Amino acid sequence: MSGRFEARGDVGILWIDNPPVNAISQSVRVALLDGLKQAESHGAIKAVVIACAGRTFMAGADITEFSGPPRSPGLPEVIDALDAFSKPVVAAIHGTAFGGGFEVALACDHRVALGNAQVGLPEVKLGILPGAGGTQRLPRLVGIEPALQAMISGDPIPVPVARDMGAIDKIVDGDLTEAAVAFAREKIGSPRRRVRDLTLAPDAVPAGFFDAARQRTAKEKRNLFSPQRIIDAVEAAATLPFDQGIQRERDLFIECARNSQAQALQHVFFAERQVAKIPGLPADVKPRSIKSVAIIGAGTMGGGIAMNFANAGIPVTLLEVNQEGLDRGLGVIRKNYEATAAKGRLTAEQVETRMGLIKPALSYDALADADLIIEAVFETLEVKKKVFETLDRVARKGAILASNTSYLSIDTIAGYTSRPADVLGMHFFSPANVMKLLEIVRGARTAPDVLATALDVAKRIKKVGVVAGNCHGFIGNRMLEGYMREGSLLVLEGATPQQVDQALVKFGMPMGVLQMGDLAGLDIGYKSRKDRDPGTFEVKAGAVADKLVEMGRLGQKTQAGYYDYQAGQRTPIPSDVVARVIEETAAGYGIQRREISEQEILERCFLAMVNIGCEVLREGIAYRASDIDIVYLYGYGFPAHRGGPMFWAEHELGLPQALEKIREYGRKHGTRWWTPSPLLERLVAEGKGFAQAL
């Protein structure tokens, strides 16, 4: 059932019931139109309330319809019917009224809501704009500037804030339906107060407002298409009659929907919801209860991980080997919280509450009662072996033992215990209290309920958990090696560091691969490269970085790496010293440096990554190509408007073109690293995409 009409005296209630979130599907749109017709023809009905069954108001459009042709009636037809309706209409909002749901509410005369509800127009996050009058009604209701900000951000707006803006008429307590009916009854006999009829004051828009908004948005929403179209639509609300503004909105909506960014962002929307669906994990598996957590290591990663749990109200024991390290770690955590409080995002009381949830410890005995223990110590098997052998002795039976390792084998680590079924990887990304990704590494003997618990924990601490199989580097760091290798080789072959990095930033990456190396520290990869055969290809790729490390240029922490840095600054400055090192190193390898195009930089960096991604998929390390995309979006800053590296290869470049380019680079640079993945070859031969990979 999608809708029903109820007469409650002289007020009609148009109920929408489309679980779980009352998405505005075709059946809901039909129900809205039918309900309005019934209310219009019912002589005793003098006013109408639109209400929703279940846990929420209409939470938005049915996004599953986006991929097919439009299905009649469209939401604009429903909104037109609301405009033409002759009786007062009140929206009764609980839960969330997002996107099309909020546009329905804006087409009503009045909006009443529970105080814990949220409203918003998040279409920008799907690469589109509000297409059912939202860009024209919200500015008329709350003013140009707050309306534009709401649509450009796409963030949820708490109802108390929405009321202060002017978008909500009344916050109600208790029975929402009864309160909405009573409110509607008060409006009987009054003329309709349609939002479309509201007018903006002549001085509502400051001179130059829209030009300034375009410039600001170009910086804040770099390379994005729909935010600029939203500004165009809101400008139409300020300068055109309502009906002309609506037509302008619809034209702009079509432009956005046809743009490749919309397809990419909608792919991300679905991919993020798909990651928690684990093939082979029984639906009836129940997560273990996690009421307390312990973290081993109070350094940058351990402290950041601890903050995630404290933020979620989960008590954390933080273990260090000495008091000095413990004090330093707790000091950094407090400093981070106080910086957040200084921005108005936390109160002083909340800072103390969260700090109070973090219990310092110097002995493993303090971990005896923890439900989940996460190790975040130095990245060597020797150190981790000692940690897990100790945990095997002190941790309670049934406790989950997790490693934050970035590369090392979870099966090897699990073998240091007598309980390998309780062991898995929980790879947080730095800074751990900020980055959304949690790579959950499933060992060969990890129990199903342990895996289910890690996925549940990810949700509780507001991370996106992606399950990976066990291999060197798992999903993200295994693929990163190809990306970093090509960035380093391009510099040897003729590109400057800034040329490589600028091409990647222009593409949409938050920073270039070489600047990323400076940020992480060039010394991190130094030892592993030196431990390998000095004649291998990898050493040549890392040769410049190794020379810089040996010169004391470790990156930002020494104010010198691939770039120079001023004290306390992160802005990279091209270095003449590095230019000489590059030229000397290239000459030592007999490399004739040449001009390198931006296209070659992008193709080599990303296709090296994608080719490895195909192997990750073929080997079952990742369940889906879309899981790989989520790893790179939330762990490495791959631009969401390009959908992720696998989506980019398939939809922007095309898999046949990707395969041909990989073969071409193999002919030019050798097949050691440019041998096409058998999976990619098979998909191209069969005319299939990544969705049909397995």
List the helices and strands and how they pair.
Layout: E1 3-8, E2 11-16, H1 26-41, E3 47-52, H2 75-84, E4 89-93, E5 96-98, H3 100-107, E6 110-114, E7 118-120, H4 134-142, H5 144-153, E8 157-158, H6 159-165, E9 170-172, H7 176-186, H8 209-220, H9 226-239, H10 242-258, H11 260-274, E10 293-296, H12 300-311, E11 316-319, H13 323-342, H14 348-356, E12 358-361, E13 372-375, H15 381-394, E14 400-403, H16 410-414, E15 423-428, E16 437-441, H17 448-460, E17 464-468, H18 476-493, H19 497-507, H20 513-520, H21 526-530, H22 537-541, H23 543-550, H24 576-588, H25 598-618, H26 625-636, H27 645-653, H28 655-669, H29 678-686
Parallel strand pairs: 2-3, 3-4, 4-6, 5-7, 6-9, 10-11, 10-13, 11-12, 13-14, 14-15, 16-17
Antiparallel strand pairs: 1-2, 7-8, 15-16
Helix pairs in contact: 1-2, 2-3, 4-5, 4-9, 5-9, 8-9, 9-10, 11-26, 12-13, 18-25, 19-25, 23-24, 25-28, 27-28
- The value of Rg in angstroms is 28 Å
Strand order of the largest sheet: 12-11-10-13-14-15-16-17
- Give helix % range: 40-55%
Mean pLDDT: 94
| Number of extended strands | 17
Hey, roughly how much beta strand do the residues contain?
5-15%
Number of helices: 29
The major pleated sheet works out as:
8 strands, mixed
Low-confidence stretches: none
Helix-and-strand structural type: alpha/beta
Outline type = globular
Distance between the termini: 37 Å
